Amino acid sequence: MIRLFVLFLPLVASQSISGWVESPGYPRGYPDEAKFDWKRCAPSGHTLSLTLIHLDMEDSDECQNDALEISNDEGKLVSLCGQKSYEELQSSVNPSLRSSPSGCLMLSFHSDYSNTQRHSGFRAFYTVQDVDECADLDNRCTQFCGNYIGGYRCFCRPGYYLDTDDHTCTVNCSVNLSGSTLGTVSSPGWPDSYAEYAQCSYTLSVDDGLQLVLEFTGNFDIQEGEEGECIDSLKVKTPSREFGPFCGQKPPPSPLLTGSHQVTILFSTDGTGTNTGFTITYKTTAKTCPSIVTSNSSLTPQLPQYRYGDKVNVMCDLGYALDTSQVGNEILSHKEFVSWCQRTGVWSPVFHCEPVDCGNPDVPVGGPLQLVNHNPSTTYKDEIRFQCESKYYRLDRDEKYFCDAEGNWRSESGHATFPKCETVCGKTENEISSFSRILGGQEAQPGEIPWQLWFYSRRGGGSLINDRWAVTAAHVVDGYEESTLRIYGGLVQAKGAYGIEQRGVKPEDAMKTNPGLVVLYSQKILIHPQYQRGLTDVERLNFDNDIALIKLKSRVNLGPTILPICLPEKKEGLSMENKVGTVSGWGLNEGGVLSRKLLHTNIVGYPHSDCSDTPTHLSKLMKMIFTENMFCAGEQGHDSCKGDSGGPFFIPRLGSGNKESKGPYRLYGIVSWGAECKDKGYYTKVENYLDWIKETIEKEESEE
Ligand SMILES: *[C@@H]1O[C@H](CO)[C@@H](O)[C@H](O)[C@H]1NC(C)=O
Ligand SMILES: *[C@@H]1O[C@H](CO)[C@@H](O)[C@H](O)[C@H]1NC(C)=O
Ligand SMILES: *[C@@H]1O[C@H](CO)[C@@H](O)[C@H](O)[C@H]1NC(C)=O
Ligand SMILES: [Ca+2]
Ligand SMILES: [Ca+2]
Ligand SMILES: [Ca+2]
User: Fold this and answer.
1) For residue 100, what are the domain limits?
2) Which of 135, 496, 521, 583 is paired with 53 by a 20 to 30 Å CA distance?
3) 640 catalytic per annotation
């Protein structure tokens, strides 16, 4: 038979846990200039205490000479000298000589150089004691506390278990009720007050075609704060929703249709209160589909509940449409699709209604029309505005456009087409008051007649009528329909043009030294179809319809020296008799030479009777035919002449066009022909060609 002998060793083997400590030489007396330090620490869960049983040292003020100092981890406890009896020590000193739990005590003794008499010193007994953690009301055990030597332990009442923090007593209230379709769930302890520090989780899970329905039966009483906040709380969670937290005395709306076949009931409590909790009866019912299939749409038919197998038409709301990338047989139109309620309570198929997008407005590239905001947002109800690139244009309609529900931009007043930038016509940048004619004319100032054009190669004039078109007389360009004509604008001194035409200066260079000069090129020349083309001067007896349109190669960059003139507003069948206007050009002047400067003069329309057929400039025997498409005008010594052909006759006379009542300048005549350059010239009556001009331009631009 084997016997086991067990040897119990002290807990702290290296240092004994009780014993004596005394001054050097005790009890015979301590020497001068002695120094003695001592330190002991308590094992964990213990304190160390010291009991002085004898003290006999030299006495001095504040123990300056010889002293015994005792301290713990928190600081000095006492500083001693002189004599004290055991009773004195027990009552006033010893109770304080204690370390903190698991802390240390330090003792320091020293003597100075002399003693008047012999002193025996001190003697003390040290020992360790268990800490009674349970005596501390702040011990963290939520139910019972048990002290033992070197530690403590929390205990729980029956039915509770100690949580992993070793202090909290809690209950096992989490249940997995998966598969159960009918039953009850109650707070732990029901119908008595529920457990403290509970974290209950009840898991319910049924077939995915069913939804769980919760009914709160019996009392409902969950601790609530004064502000209505939940101190303890009940929550019901499904994968997609959360109900609660619930608390107080009023049960949640019952029955609670969770819409889900998976539900977790969560109940959590704190350490206070005596409330009784809840009891829930759970059961199941078939799942229903939500009354919304997708946002921004409506359903037909409208039912209070949709069940498995129900079919609905889903129609996107106004301003929303199905994304065109979505495909499926169920899509009925760009706004509508069919969906079915599935057994699992979801709709299928589901397409999404997106806000209608009008896209970036299609503003013609390179034109004067611009968006005020270059990067607009372009979905349903978004707004855009237009502007023109410069002050030389004006919007024909200045209104806001909105993206409508069909994805089109539409104006406030319902227009589907964007506005146009029309050239501002018949206005000069600086109206110069002084003025005077060609024959008997005055020189024009830069920018004074900014619509005046000059065809050097044809020795003729023209007028700019918008940023792309000019008019001239048909006879000026007859035979040149196939050529690209160089046309000068912004010219008052001919030298810029002469440099280009006669000395081979490059147009770019000429423009650098003549800042107002603009060089344009014709793209297409359109002579009036009823003009008799290809006749020689000798053959010609008829200048009827002496008008041509010139389409320029590119948009004119309008500026102070090149601006268009307006056309007459409408055909009024006006007699030009006594109408005063200005004619301008580069024609022969009084000296019979071509002018090097742009000249202008004011003339007056003659009565019709004075304009009748008149001898040609070639022969007094042959008469030029006068037609309704002409008028004649002049003044003694003031007339247009050879070389002025194609140039403008405009009303009001120069210098008065910017005055509100008179302006803008309008092109009433085109210099056409005359017998002699004296006092009467013949002009094409522009008023008669307004329709032809409009239709021709529209036709040409629509073909671009
Ligand atoms: C409660 O649960 C804990 C941890 O899940 C377990 O350790 C303990 O034994 C249980 N107690 C009871 C009474 O069921
Ligand atoms: C509950 O039990 C079911 C089986 O009965 C299991 O599949 C499921 O994972 C469990 N849920 C939880 C939360 O423990
Ligand atoms: C469209 O649906 C979204 C998301 O549901 C919502 O925020 C928005 O208000 C809806 N728009 C309209 C016009 O109803
Ligand atoms: Ca001394
Ligand atoms: Ca203890
Ligand atoms: Ca509570």
Assistant:
1) 2-134
2) 135
3) no
